[in-house]
Amino acid sequence: MTPAPNDLRSFPALDDVDRAILTELAADGRLPNNALAERVGVAPSTCLARTRALRESGAIRGFHAEIDPAALGLPLQALVSVRLSAHERPVVDAFRARSVRFPGVVSVFHVAGAEDYVLHVRAASADALRDFVLDHLAVDPAVQHTQTSLIFEQARGVG
């Protein structure tokens, strides 16, 4: 079985330089290699090799631009908690596979507690958010219950 993406046992041991590279890239994924090397105190060639190794190991999952959702015409954000009707692995795996492809879904979190999943969703309006829940979740036989919480403000942490 393939380890989950956040399963730390699947990664080689990271030293202080690797952790520094990850910290710097988490703060600014567009940091040029020369500047990154200077910040973490290694030669640019060493930094490049280590960054490649971190990408290949999956420690760096990718790079992306953080865009204001309103610029995309999706100013409304919500967290939609989902409780599944069954908890067998095929049901859970199938829901996860479907949910990441739903329109407007930014992230899918499999969580512990009363709910099974939390979906971070962006929508054009309250009506569009309602339609998302009705068209994709309420009709899904695997979904027992949903609860929607609007996001008033979002701030990104550094770690």
UniProtKB/TrEMBL annotation:
Domain of life: Bacteria
Pfam families per UniProt: AsnC_trans_reg, HTH_AsnC-type
Gene3D superfamilies membership: 3.30.70.920, Winged helix-like DNA-binding domain superfamily/Winged helix DNA-binding domain (1.10.10.10)
GO CC annotations on file: cytosol
Entry keywords, A to Z: DNA-binding, Transcription, Transcription regulation
InterPro entries: AsnC-type_HTH_dom, Dimeric_a/b-barrel, Tscrpt_reg_AsnC-like, Tscrpt_reg_AsnC/Lrp_C, WH-like_DNA-bd_sf, WH_DNA-bd_sf
GO molecular function, one term: sequence-specific DNA binding
GO biological process: response to amino acid
Residues annotated as domain HTH asnC-type: 14-75
The protein's name: Lrp/AsnC family transcriptional regulator
Source organism phylogeny: Bacteria, Bacillati, Actinomycetota, Actinomycetes, Micromonosporales
